[in-house]
Model the fold of this input.
Amino acid sequence: VLILLSLNSIEFIAFLALDWHSPAFSSFSSPVKILNGFFSAIVTRTSGFNSVDLSLLASGMQVLYLGMMYI
Done:
């Protein structure tokens, strides 16, 4: 459980650092961005759903998502 929380936390913090001002989230308010980042951190590793166009995310975030899908 600790490993799962750690991986999701890393993903969420990376989202905040890399994609806060991304074009994919430009029309969202701050609480919606936080909720969307939390959702993305959880579902990337479990089900693969997404709530925005992944091609609009920072390239570092795309690589992180790809790596997390393999873990």
Summary: The helical segments are 2-18, 30-46, 59-70. The mean pLDDT is 90.
